[in-house]
Structures are given as structure tokens and as C-alpha cells.
Amino acid sequence: MFFERVLLPVICLGIEVFPLVSAEDVDIREVLADKGTNVTIPCGGLLTMPAPNVQWVHRGIKTHHEVLSDRSLLLRQIDVDDAGLYECGVENETAYVDRVNLTVRTEPPPLVNVTVHASTILALILWNVAGDGGHPIIDFTAQYRSAMPINGTLEQWRPISPNHISPNSRQIDVYHLEPNASYWFRVWATNLLGPGPPVEVLATTLYSDQEAELYKHFLEGAESFDTRTWVAAVCVVMGTLVVLAAGTCAVLCREWRRDGEPAAA
Ligand SMILES: *[C@@H]1O[C@H](CO)[C@@H](O)[C@H](O)[C@H]1NC(C)=O
Ligand SMILES: *[C@@H]1O[C@H](CO)[C@@H](O)[C@H](O)[C@H]1NC(C)=O
Ligand SMILES: *[C@@H]1O[C@H](CO)[C@@H](O)[C@H](O)[C@H]1NC(C)=O
Ligand SMILES: *[C@@H]1O[C@H](CO)[C@@H](O)[C@H](O)[C@H]1NC(C)=O
Ligand SMILES: *[C@@H]1O[C@H](CO)[C@@H](O)[C@H](O)[C@H]1NC(C)=O
Ligand SMILES: *[C@@H]1O[C@H](CO)[C@@H](O)[C@H](O)[C@H]1NC(C)=O
């Protein structure tokens, strides 16, 4: 029972898969490597010829890279240009013995759909991720600076808290901007290999006297908190409660008297 139901299908599956595996001498092998590292790509297959008769072809052209004595190809400090298909074979023959697709892992590519929605003194930066470069994104970083040059130069970039934005985030708020002012905002992703290129967006805050004053007042109030204001607020609340309690008592007393009248009569 066990043999028929479980083992037999497994064995048949194995017999079916095996010929494919043995015939993979020209299948494309995938090799992943980090940008800037040295990579050795072995020329697999059942080759017995000496190294001088081996040639490696990249994108249809014989490579200038060093072929080692074991026929493998040595790529030094690889860059994105080195990615793609590598094929090794016997010199002057068109058939290939081994084919390798090299993928070069890099820093994250620039973020896409980067937009800034500015109100008077607040702004919201939004972005999308187009890829991670081959390693997961560790965090995002956003910065801003005034677009108005001072003495002919732009000010230093200012950090936007938090400095390390969660990799699940796709937006960040910016506070304490000036109304009716232009700012550059920039944002980028970082992975194991480092930061990707920043994307810069220009935005101008709205002009609205009242709204700006309101926000400023609110923020200033939060920073320099006055205990007298608090005591006054508590007094007002307590006073209201006392008045409410007195009112409730009065109503209850009247109800009680009204209920008592028929009983007395
Ligand atoms: C890569 O190759 C270069 C040039 O041969 C060498 O200077 C460097 O140390 C190598 N790097 C590694 C990580 O082996
Ligand atoms: C390959 O062809 C070139 C000229 O086309 C010739 O000089 C060279 O000897 C040939 N190599 C082999 C291994 O036959
Ligand atoms: C090589 O790998 C890249 C990325 O994984 C893929 O886009 C490309 O189609 C592959 N090329 C070949 C010839 O398999
Ligand atoms: C960018 O925005 C467009 C339009 O809103 C959307 O279709 C696309 O999916 C976005 N790109 C990414 C990588 O999210
Ligand atoms: C501009 O430069 C002048 C002289 O270099 C300096 O006195 C002045 O304070 C600068 N203005 C600002 C806003 O930094
Ligand atoms: C907004 O700024 C521009 C240029 O900086 C200025 O010309 C304009 O008068 C300002 N608007 C208000 C309402 O302050």
C-alpha cells in the first residue's frame, strides 16, 4: 500500500526528472554577486581541453577578462556592466559547454513616484520602491533644505526625523517649515551595499496667515507650557462640575418633593 501510493510515484518522478538534470549542460546557470567583488565563474561540463583553447563570450563578444588555468573566468571588481550571459566553449566552435547568467547586486535603484504635498508649515513626502538592488532595503532617509540661496549658496541639507525610516514606510512628515517658501526635499533607500541615488523634489509651501499662526501658536504652546493656564483650565472644569452637581441636586430635590406630595395628601 505504502509502496504503491507513496514510493512508486516518487520513484517515477525521480526517473522523469533525472534525464532533464543530466541534459542540463547547456542550461543557463544563475550566478549572483555583489558589485565591487571579484567573481570566478567555472566553465562546467565535461571538458578535457587545456585552458588556451577555451573561450568565454559575453554578449556575443569574446571577453578580455582573465581565463584561469582551470578554464574558469575571473571578473575583478564587477560592476553592473558585467551582468548578463557568459558562455564558455572551445575556441572557433559555435557550440557552448556552459552558460552562466551573472546578476550583479547593487545599492537600491532610485525611488520612484516621489511626490511632496506641502501645506503652510507641514509637508508630506511620498514614494514608491522600484527594486532593492538584490539585497533587502534596510531603511530610507529623507532630508530637506531651503531652495533660496543665502549669499549665493544653498544651505546644508537638514535631517528629517527619524533618520532611519522603517523599510515598510512609504511616507514621512516634515514639520516646522516656513509658509510661502520653496524647499528641496530628497529621499533614498539603503541596503547592505550602501545608499542608492537620492531623488530630489522641489515644493513650495502655501501662504495662509491664519493657518500658519494657528499652527505656530499650537507648537509654541506645546514647547513652553504654562502651568497657570493649566490651573485656570482645571478651575474652570471643576467649577462647571460643581454647578452641574448643584443643578442635579436641585432637580432631584424637586422630584422627591413632588413624589412626596400625593403620599402626604
Ligand atoms: C579583487 O581583485 C583585485 C585586483 O586583483 C585585488 O586588488 C582585490 O584585493 C581583490 N578583492 C578581493 C575581495 O579579493
Ligand atoms: C581559431 O581561428 C584562428 C583564426 O581564425 C586561428 O588563428 C586559431 O589557431 C584557431 N584556434 C584553434 C584552437 O583552432
Ligand atoms: C539573467 O538574469 C536576469 C535577472 O535575474 C534576467 O532578467 C535575465 O532575463 C536573465 N537572462 C537570461 C539570458 O537568462
Ligand atoms: C507609480 O505611480 C503609477 C501611477 O500612480 C503607478 O501605476 C505605478 O505602479 C507606481 N510605481 C510603483 C513602483 O509603485
Ligand atoms: C553673507 O556674507 C557676508 C560677507 O561674507 C556676511 O557678512 C553676511 O552675514 C552673510 N549673510 C548671511 C545671511 O549669511
Ligand atoms: C510669497 O513669496 C513670494 C516670493 O518669495 C513673494 O513675492 C510673495 O509676495 C509672497 N506672498 C505673500 C502673500 O507673502
TrEMBL record:
Ordered alphabetically, the record's keywords are:
Membrane, Repeat, Signal, Transmembrane, Transmembrane helix
Fibronectin type-III domain span: 108-209
Q: Which PROSITE patterns match?
A: FN3, IG_LIKE
List residues traversing the bilayer.
230-253
Keyword Repressor applies: no
- Output the InterPro entries linked to this UniProt entry: FN3_dom (IPR003961), Ig-like_dom (IPR007110), Ig_sub (IPR003599), Ig_sub2 (IPR003598), Striated_Muscle_Regulatory (IPR050964)
Signal peptide interval? 1-23
The residue ranges of the Ig-like domain are 19-103
Name of this chain's protein: Uncharacterized protein
- Organism for this UniProt entry: Manduca sexta (Tobacco hawkmoth)
